[in-house]
Structures are given as C-alpha cells and as structure tokens.
Specification:
Structural class: alpha+beta
CATH class of the largest domain: Alpha Beta
Shape: globular
Order of helices and strands: EHEHEEEHHHHHHEEEEEEEEEHHH
Strand order of the largest sheet: 4-5-10-6-7
Oligomer: single chain
CATH topology of the largest domain: Uridine Diphospho-n-acetylenolpyruvylglucosamine Reductase, domain 3
Distance between the termini: 56 Å
Helix content: 25-40%
Strand content: 25-35%
CATH architecture of the largest domain: 2-Layer Sandwich
Largest sheet: 5 strands, antiparallel
Length: about 290
Amino acid sequence: MIPAGFDYHAPRSLADAVKLLGSLGPDARLLAGGHSLLPMMKLRFATPSALIDLGKIADLRGIAQAGNEIRIGAMTTEHALHGSKLVAEKLPLLHEGVSQIADPQVRYRGTIGGDISHGDPANDHPSLMLALDASFVLAGPKGERVVKADGFFLGVYSTQRADDEILTQIRIPIPAAGSGWSYSKLKRKTGDFATAAAAVLLQMKGGTVGAVSIALTNVGPTPIKARQAEQALVGKALNDASLNQAARLAMAACSPTNDPRGTPEYKTAMAGEMTRRALQAALSRAKA
C-alpha cells in the first residue's frame, strides 16, 4: 500500500527538531531508522501529518565514555554499535545483543534510539537496557530530563517519552570488572523477533552470586525485569538447583500472548530455558 500524504522536515539541530515537534502537534512523528514506522504508514496503521527526520542531526550520533558511563547518541546505528571497540570492551552484553538484532541490512539503518522509543516489547534493546541499568536522556521544550530504563516502558508501544520530547542519548554504567554476560535468544529464523530471550549480567563473589540482573524479551506487554529470580540467586552458588529455581521464577513473571511464534505456555517455558542458558553462559565468562 501507499502511505497517506504527509509533510516532511529534516532539521539540522536538536533545538530545531524540538521546536518543530512542538509546533506541528501530536500528529507529527519522529523518523529515526524507519524500520517500524514506515511499514505501519504503508499499511495505514499510522497516518502522521508530518515526519521529522532526525538523520541530519550529527549531535545525535556517536559513542563515548564519560567517567564510568558509556554514552550513546540515539541516532547511532546498530551497525556502528556492533563495530564499536568501546562497546565490545566495556559493554559486551550490548555487543552480543546487537549482533542478534534483525539482519545486517537492517542494522545498517536501524538506530538504538528508534528501537527504544518505539516501545515494542519484541525489540531486543529494551530488555538489554533493563539488564544494563541504562538511563535515557529526553529533550523537550522544557529542557532535558533523565529517565531510568527500569520504569520507562509502560506497555506495548507506550513509554514515558512525552509527545513533545525526543530521546537524545542512552547512558549505560560500565559493569564491574569481571562481570559475566549473555543474551540468549530463541528465534525462528535470522532476522526474526525473539520467541523469548533473556539478558543476564552477573557478578560472582567467591563461589556465589554477588549480584545479577535478568531481563526478558517478548514475553509480556513490556520487557520484564525478573526481580524474584535475581533475588533468589544472590548469595547462592549457580548449580542445577539454583538455576532451576531462577528459571521457574522467571517463568512466573511472564505473560506472553498467543501468536505464530507459539502459545503462551511454550513462550513461557522458553523464557525459563533462555534464562537458564544465559545464566550458564554468563557464569562461564565471569571472574570472581
């Protein structure tokens, strides 16, 4: 199908983009990579009166370390993330997760900010951001505010970003030295969304779990922080008993829907299995 008519704007500064977004009203939409918005427009599920293309704003791209944080511009592509030595060294969980997003063609155009702002629980970045304890910088007519990833996602395609705000930057604390990591993702084919996936960041203390972060993809209306599973693991050795308990508690947090990827029961079971696999892989990479 052909999209409905719309006006097109390509501002060259963040200030101009914020001004345009405010003046054009709630029917205007921001354009990042376009992989989610443009198909919806072609099907006329979305009919914005105007598009504000963020692609010409250089300040919204780039990856840099600031103190103990990695700061990523929202218009940074998945390809740039995957090719970044800084991300590979400091945020290996993100590096591994990005390698499993869609396919190379999509990664050349898709952006981290577009993925996060879309608020789709099937996307990979939301759960990765939860596991990494990320924060998001939002710019609007009243200035900037910083929002934690934990709590940012409100429902399917719903986030804390207001209609007149633009996600400009992602801030991720660098994990402690020796942390283990894994993004374990079950999908039907290359380029597909996850049937279920688990992102794990693990710190061992001696032979027991010192701290652990577990987040689940595509098994609820938002990415899920498996808090009870995390709490159950702290202070314990990672063995069959503790892994089984963590998997059960992760499954208890799930509320998936029925779709061509499987029944709710199957997806829930796979979320437990992905949690188990991610914990085992993270343990193999962790240093006490």
